[in-house]
Specification:
65% of the residues lie in helices and 4% in strands. By secondary structure, the protein is mostly helical. A hairpin with an 8-residue loop joins strand 4 (336-338) and strand 5 (347-352).
Length: 569
C-alpha cells in the first residue's frame, strides 16, 4: 500500500511534544499572526490543523502505552503529565484561537467550502461552552477517569492454580460444564464486587465534578452540557427517549424469544446468568483463531476478500506495529482503535483470548481503522474527527458486511452457521443493553444528588425494563446491583454509548443494501466514510443509502430483516 505521511509545514520536522514551554510559541505564533485574505485564513487553518495533529498524536501514544501496561508507573506518569501539565495550558489557547477565527472578516467567504461549515459550527459551540474555571475541574476528571482503567486492569481470579484476567476467565463461561460455568461466574462477579465501594466512590466523585462543570457553563445538568459539548446538532434527548421506547417495544420481545429457546435447548429448569454464553446445542465454544497472529492474518484475509484496499490497511498497521491484541495481566480492559492524526495510521488495542467475540472485536476495530485510512486525504484534522454516530457506523457495518467471508475462520459449515447465528443474536442483545446504559446515564445526571442506594434502585428498574423475563437472578442480586460498573464508558467517556445503538441500526441497513447489491452497497459505505466530518450525520447516512431514524417502524423493519437472515441459516 502506497501511503505517504504529509510533511510538516508549520512545525519543525524533528519537533516533539515534551513540555508546555516548548509548545507554547507555536500557539502564540498562530494567535498573533495577521490574516489579510481568504487564502491566508485557509493557510492559517492548515497550520492550526498540523499543530493539533502533532499534539493529539503525542497524547495518543501516551494513552496507548499506558493502557498496554497499567503496571508501569512511568507510562502512567507520562500520560498524567500531559493531562496535568500540557492539556490545561492548551485549553485557553484553543478558545482564543477559536475566537480569532470567528472574528475574521474573511470567515464568511470560506464558510461554504466543504467541511468548513461543519468545523465552524463546532468552533462556535466550543466558544459558547468554554469556561476558564472548568479547566482544573476537567484536569481532575481526566485524572480520576484514568483510575478506572487501573482498578479494572488489576482484576484477576485464580483458577486451577493459574491467574486469569477477567477476560480470560470469561471464556470459560462458554464451557459445556455447567458447574464450571457457575464457579467461574461467581469468581468473576465476586472479584468485581471486591472493588464495588472503590468504584462507587470514584463514580460519585466524577458525577459531582461533571455536574459542577455543567453548572459553570450555564447548563441545568451535565447531560445537557454533554449534548452541546459532543456537538449533537442532529438529535435531542427526546430522540434518545424515543430510541429507548422503540427498543423496549420492538426488540425486548425478541430477547425473550432467544432466552426461551436457550432454556429449552439446554433443557434447564431455570436459566441462570452463567448459562447465557454457552452454545445452545451443547457444543464447546467456537475457537475461530489460535493466538493474536492467527487472528490478525485471518482478519486481513477476510478484508482482502471484501476489497483488497481494506486488507492493505490492516497490513500497513501490522508493518508499523500498530496493534496490541493479546489479553494479559496489567493491561487495561476493553478494545479500541485510536486514530493517529499526524501519521494517519491508527492503533488497535484489544484483549483477545480465542473467542468469537474477540474475532468480531477485531473486525469492528478494523472498521474504525479503515475509516481512518479513508479520511486521510481530507484537508484538516477537524474533518477527520467524525462524531461517534458516524465512527461506529464504520465499525459495526464492517462486522456485518464481512459475514459472507467468515469461512476463513471456520472450516466447517456447522461452525460457520453457529458463528453467524450467535452474532446476529448479539445484535438483538446489543440494542437493549445500549438503551439500558443510555437511560441510566440520563437518570444519573438528571438526579446528580442521588445516593448509592438510589442509584442501585434506578439501575435495577431500568435494567429490568430492557432484560428478558426468563433469566433467574435469585440469590445473585448483589452481583446484578453493580453490573453497570463493568461499563467503562460510564467512567471514562460519559454519554458515549447511545451511538452504538444508532450505528447498529445503520449497520443493519448497510448490510441489507450490501445483501441486495454487494458492489453498490460497499461503494456507498466507503463513499460515506470518506466524508469524515465534512457533512452532518443525516447527510453521511444518506450517502450510505440509509436513514438516521430511531422510530418504531424503522427498528421493526430492520429487526425483521435480521430475523429473516437468521432463518436462512
Amino acid at each position: 500500500m502506497e501511503f505517504e505521511i504529509k510533511e510538516r509545514q508549520f512545525l519543525p520536522k524533528d519537533f516533539k511534544v515534551k513540555d508546555w514551554e516548548k509548545l507554547k510559541p507555536y500557539f502564540e505564533k498562530l494567535l498573533n499572526q495577521d490574516i489579510n485574505s481568504d487564502e491566508e485564513l485557509i493557510n492559517w487553518f492548515g497550520n492550526l490543523s498540523e499543530l493539533e495533529a502533532v499534539v493529539s498524536e503525542d497524547m495518543a501514544w501516551r494513552y496507548i502505552k499506558m493502557t498496554c501496561d497499567t503496571s508501569d508507573e512511568k507510562l502512567a506518569a507520562s500520560f498524567e503529565d500531559f493531562v496535568r501539565n500540557i492539556q490545561p495550558h492548551i485549553a485557553p489557547y484553543s478558545d482564543k484561537l477559536n475566537r480569532k477565527a470567528l472574528a475574521s472578516p474573511y470567515l464568511s467567504a470560506i464558510r461554504e467550502k466543504e467541511g468548513y461549515n461543519i468545523m465552524i459550527r463546532e468552533m462556535e459551540k466550543d466558544v459558547k461552552i468554554f469556561r476558564e474555571e472548568n479547566i482544573p475541574l476537567e484536569t481532575e476528571i481526566s485524572s480520576l477517569s484514568q483510575k478506572y482503567g487501573a482498578i479494572s486492569g488489576a482484576m484477576d481470579i485464580e483458577h486451577d492454580g493459574k491467574e486469569l484476567t477477567l477476560q480470560q476467565a470469561a471464556v470459560k463461561l462458554q464451557s459445556t460444564d455447567r458447574k464450571l460455568r457457575e464457579e467461574i461466574y461467581h469468581k468473576i462477579s465476586s472479584r468485581r464486587l471486591a472493588d464495588k465501594e472503590k468504584l462507587d466512590d470514584l463514580f460519585t466523585e466524577l458525577v459531582k465534578l461533571r455536574t459542577e462543570v455543567a453548572k459553570n457553563a450555564g447548563f441545568d445538568n451535565f447531560r445537557d452540557y454533554m449534548f452541546a459539548s459532543m456537538g449533537r446538532f442532529d438529535y435531542t434527548p427526546q430522540d434518545c427517549f424515543d430510541f429507548h421506547e422503540s427498543v423496549k417495544s420492538e426488540v425486548v420481545p425478541l430477547l425473550n424469544d432467544i432466552a426461551k429457546e436457550r432454556k429449552e435447548k439446554l433443557e434447564l429448569d431455570t436459566l441462570r446468568p452463567w448459562d447465557k454464553a454457552v452454545d445452545i446445542s451443547g457444543k464447546e465454544a467456537l475457537k475461530p483463531f489460535s493466538g493474536a497472529d492467527d487472528l490478525t492474518q485471518k482478519t486481513i484475509q477476510v478484508f482482502n476478500e471484501l476489497d483488497p484496499f481494506l486488507g492493505d490497511c490492516l497490513t500497513k498497521m501490522v508493518e508499523m506495529k500498530h496493534m496490541d491484541l493479546d489479553s494479559r495481566k496489567g493491561k487495561s480492559p476493553g478494545g479500541y482503535n485510536y486514530p493517529l492524526s499526524e501519521t494517519g495510521v491508527p492503533f488497535i488495542f484489544m484483549n483477545a483470548t480465542s473467542t468469537l467475540r474477540d474475532m468480531v472485536t477485531l473486525l469492528h476495530e478494523g472498521g474504525h481503522a479503515v475509516h481512518s485510512f479513508l479520511m486521510n486525504g481530507l484537508e484538516l484534522t477537524d474533518f477527520k474527527n467524525p462524531p461517534s454516530e458516524v465512527a461506529e457506523l464504520a465499525s459495526m457495518s464492517m462486522e456485518l458486511i464481512t459475514l459472507d467471508y467468515w469461512d476463513v475462520f471456520f472450516n466447517n459449515e456447522e461452525d460457520l452457521k453457529r458463528a453467524k447465528t450467535e452474532h446476529l443474536q448479539g445484535i438483538i442483545e446489543t440494542l437493549p443493553w445500549v438503551a439500558t446504559i443510555d437511560k441510566f446515564q440520563h437518570w444519573i445526571y438528571e438526579n446528580p444528588e442521588h445516593t448509592v442506594e438510589e442509584r442501585t434502585k434506578a439501575w435495577n428498574d431500568i435494567l429490568d425494563d430492557f432484560s428478558d423475563s426468563i433469566t433467574d437472578w435469585s440469590s445473585l442480586e448483589k452481583f446484578k446491583d453493580n453490573l453497570w460498573q463493568k461499563q467503562l464508558h460510564l467512567y471514562e467517556v460519559p454519554f458515549y454509548y447511545i451511538e452504538y445503538g444508532m450505528a447498529q441500526l445503520g449497520a443493519v441497513a448497510v448490510w441489507k443494501n450490501y445483501k441486495t447489491n454487494p458492489k453498490k452497497g460497499l461503494e456507498s459505505y466507503m463513499k460515506a466514510l470518506k466524508m469524515g466530518y465534512t457533512r452532518s450525520i443525516p447527510e453521511v447516512y444518506e450517502a450510505a443509502d440509509i436513514k438516521f431514524d430511531f422510530s418504531k417502524n424503522n427498528i421493526s423493519e430492520l429487526m425483521s430483516f435480521v430475523k429473516q437472515e437468521m432463518n436462512k441459516l
